[in-house]
Structure formats: C-alpha cells, structure tokens
Amino acid sequence: xxxxxxxxxxxxxxxxxxxxxxxxxxxxxxxxxxxxxxxxxxxxxxxxxxxxxxxxxxxxxxxxxxxxxxxxxxxxxxxxxxxxxxxxxxxxxxxxxxxxxxxxxxxxxxxxxxxxxxxxxxxxxxxxxxxxxxxxxxxxxxxxxxxxxxxxxxxxxxxxxxxxxxxxxxxxxxxxxxxxxxxxxxxxxxxxxxxxxxxxxxxxxxxxxxxxxxxxxxxxxxxxxxxxxxxxxxxxxxxxxxxxxxxxxxxxxxxxxxxxxxxxxxxxxxxxxxxxxxxxxxxxxxxxxxxxxxxxxxxxxxxxxxxxxxxxxxxxxxxxxxxxxxxxxxxxxxxxxxxxxxxxxxxxxxxxxxxxxxxxxxxxxxxxxxxxxxxxxxxxxxxxxxxxxxxxxxxxxxxxxxxxxxxxxxxxxxxxxxxxxxxxxxxxxxxxxxxxxxxxxxxxxxxxxxxxxxxxx
Length: 457
Ligand SMILES: NC(=O)C1=CN([C@@H]2O[C@H](COP(=O)(O)OP(=O)(O)OC[C@H]3O[C@@H](n4cnc5c(N)ncnc54)[C@H](OP(=O)(O)O)[C@@H]3O)[C@@H](O)[C@H]2O)[C@@H](O)CC1
Ligand SMILES: Nc1ncnc2c1ncn2[C@@H]1O[C@H](COP(=O)(O)OP(=O)(O)O)[C@@H](O)[C@H]1O
Ligand SMILES: [K+]
Known about the structure:
Layout: E1 2-3, H1 12-24, H2 29-48, E2 53-57, H3 61-75, E3 80-84, H4 91-100, E4 105-106, E5 115-119, H5 131-143, E6 146-150, E7 172-176, H6 188-192, E8 194-198, E9 208-210, E10 230-234, H7 239-251, E11 256-260, E12 272-274, H8 278-282, E13 286-291, H9 299-310, E14 315-317, H10 321-324, H11 327-331, E15 337-339, H12 343-350, H13 357-368, E16 371-374, E17 380-382, E18 388-390, H14 403-416, H15 421-439, H16 445-455
This protein binds ligand NPW, adenosine-5'-diphosphate and potassium ion.
C-alpha cells in the first residue's frame, strides 16, 4: 500500500495499455490478477484485524481480483465469504473463481460483515449498476465498519470521477497499479476514502501526477530581499482582495512585495505601497505580477489589466481579470502566465468544460499557452505541454471568500522565487492546501496567509 503523493495518474485506456504492454512482454492476465488479488489480500489483512470479511465480486476482472483475494485471505486463516450477482465473464476471472472454490452467496441477499470489499466493477464499468446491485452494495457498505474498494468504488467513471448512480463512500480504495483520475476528481474522489496504490508490477508512465509536496528551502545565507523574489500586486477596486494576495505573497516567502495603486490603511507595514506608474510597473526586479483579485470589471479595471498584459513580467491572472482578458490578448504575450480560474471564471474564459476536469484544464492550457490552475474541491494544474498535476482533496473550509486571492499571492511568490510556472503553480497550490489543513475549521482567508509562514519551519 503506497501513498499516492507524486504518483502517476492513468486513465482507463492508459492503464489498459500499460497492462497490455506487460502482457506482450510475457506476463499473463492471470499473473497480473494474482498480483492484484494478493496485494489486496495483504492490504485487507493489515486493515481488517480479525473480523469477518465479505468480498463482493463482479463479472469482470475486478471481480477476478476479488476471488483471488478471497482465496488468499482464507489460506491466511481469515473468516471470509464471497457474494456475486453473476458468474465471471472473462477467462481470467473464471480461473480466479475456480481458485476460490468456496460458496458464493447471491449478492442481493448477502449477509453483512464487519469488513466489506467491493470488487464488483473497476475500470471496465460501462453504465450504472442495476438497481438490485446498487441497493445491495449500499446496504452492505452501510452495515460494515470498514469498507474497502478494489481499484475504484463501483459506480464511478474512471476518467471523469462522475457518479453513474448512487455510490456509497468507502473508507479505503486500493488503486491497482496506478492512481486513476476518479480518485482525485469530484464527485468520485469523496466516495474513495483514503486512496492507496497496490503495485501490480506494471510499468506506469503518465504526463499527469498527483500533486506532491514541493521542496521548500529556507533562504540561502547570502540571500537579500530581491533574490528571494519581488511580487507586484495590481490594486483593484476591492482593496481587501489585493491586500490578501499581497500578504499571502509575503508569507509564502517573497522578499519584496509591492502593492501598486492608491494605498489604504491596515495592511502590514512591510507591504511596500507604490503609485501605479510606468516606473513602478517596469521595475526589472519584479518576478511576478498579480492582476485580478478585487480588480472590478469596469473600464478602469480593463485598463489596469491592459497595463499588466503590456509588461514583460510573468503574470498571475486571477479573479475579475479572467472575465476581462481575451484569448487574443493571451496569445499576444510571450512572458509566462498562470491563470487561476474557479469553475465560473473557467467557463467565462474558455467556455463550458468538456470531458473530464483534467481534459478541460489541459485543453485550456494548450489554447492559452499558459499554466492553468483549475480550482475547486479538485484542483487541476495543467501546462501547455500536456503535463498536469491533480491535488488530493483538501480542506473544504477553503470554501470561504478570499482564499483564491491568497492562492494567487502564494503562486506569485513561488514564481518570483525562481520556480518555472508549472512548478510554481503546484507549489502554491500545495502550500495553500497545507496552510488550510493547519488552520483547522472555520478559518478566514486572512488566517490562511499567516499559516503558510509556519510551513517553512
Ligand atoms: N486488464 C488487466 O490485465 C488487469 C485488470 N485488473 C482488474 O480488472 C479491472 C478491469 O477489468 P474489466 O475490464 O474486466 O472490467 P470490470 O470493471 O471488472 O467490469 C467489466 C465487466 O462488467 C460488465 N459491466 C460493466 N458495467 C456494468 C454494469 N453497470 N452492470 C453490469 N455489468 C457491467 C462488463 O460487460 P459489458 O456489459 O459492459 O459488456 C464486463 O463484463 C480493473 O479495474 C482491475 O480491478 C487487474 O486484475 C490486473 C490485470
Ligand atoms: N470544497 C473545497 N475543498 C477544497 N478546496 C476548496 C473548496 N472550495 C474552494 N476551495 C479552494 O479555495 C479557493 C477558492 O478560490 P476562489 O473561488 O477564487 O475564492 P475567492 O474568489 O473568494 O478568493 C481555491 O483555491 C479553491 O481550490
Ligand atoms: K470496485
């Protein structure tokens, strides 16, 4: 059982191709199923204690994995029962079923057990479970004290995280061979519980990965404020939003943060307030400009955005600026850009997303030639070259006003600090999520910035 941080993320087709390569290189499907089933059984042995285990087996290879696991758990001396709604339909699953040898209860009337293992459907799910199977699964998961899904909770579309029907949430999902998009994309992700990878000896490479903790170094002994990175925040109509972004950039490690525009009282004294003029904006030491938080959407805002776009500085474009900016304006720029839309801003700039959130973020990054941070409860970061990272579910307490401004500031600090745009976006998202975790419940966006500082300790 391997934690998923930093692991490759494969779609169902990519996983099938990886398995096919292993098969072409001489490993049989049966051998892969044995590895999968043994890995599951070993994980269940560690998680389930001495309690009785009920394994629900479907007609495909996911069910096959379940039969193999059942046989191994029985051989290990555990009390284990199996339930199924249909006979195996693949050769490998039939062999696995014969290897179990014990009784198979009808799924609909299966008696509950303290530990239930869902091996009904995995990456081959093609439609919603029929009503009887869905009801039995819901009942058995509800009555168990520990529920474990094999590869994916049955009823979730592997590539999008969409629910094809009602899907009960399990405690643990054992992803076979690699993480799949549904383990991270909502609403599927919340049905998965804790996700761990069970290796099956298949080579898995992907341009998409689970977001991992960045290396956060303390400043080098010879650092000075400008080597740590200078961030300029364009002050908009709502000063609070710009202040949140600027404060976050400071706490995320930027050495010098300037707020460009008319000053208001109450911001930290360390925040440098500068009049927005060409000299301030052309300062060659600026490593990142944040434009958008609290900008407004009127002509004045449009003009401010135009000034930011006209610079040669790397930009973090957030909030209102995502409603104002046009694709030709983005195309005209050559300096790096990071766009940080939530779902509404994404739709305003790129149109309604199609396919999975991962597909949508990638298409947007390609179209805009910018790094796109598609925010939400399942943040996806995509680069124009096809690389992507998917964040694990973070604190839902982030759903409070101003946290997006904090994220924009954190990303700008990472960018000004010298990270490449894609890495800066990932580091900012990670820092933001970790700060939220540390902040606990019911924090406000102002608290979040301060919590970022502690992470560097
Ligand atoms: N490939 C490999 O080498 C390895 C794969 N491994 C494992 O295999 C899993 C993928 O296996 P899989 O492709 O057999 O798909 P799986 O999810 O078991 O179900 C497909 C079956 O169910 C059927 N069906 C679909 N939806 C349905 C519904 N709602 N209600 C009723 N029936 C439905 C569908 O038939 P259909 O009706 O769609 O034609 C088909 O018969 C993967 O997640 C991993 O656990 C590991 O063992 C390692 C080696
Ligand atoms: N339910 C949630 N779970 C995890 N993160 C969330 C959730 N809701 C929002 N977030 C995060 O909080 C931030 C909100 O940003 P945004 O919507 O731009 O807010 P605002 O405009 O008020 O600053 C984003 O980083 C987003 O990913
Ligand atoms: K399953």
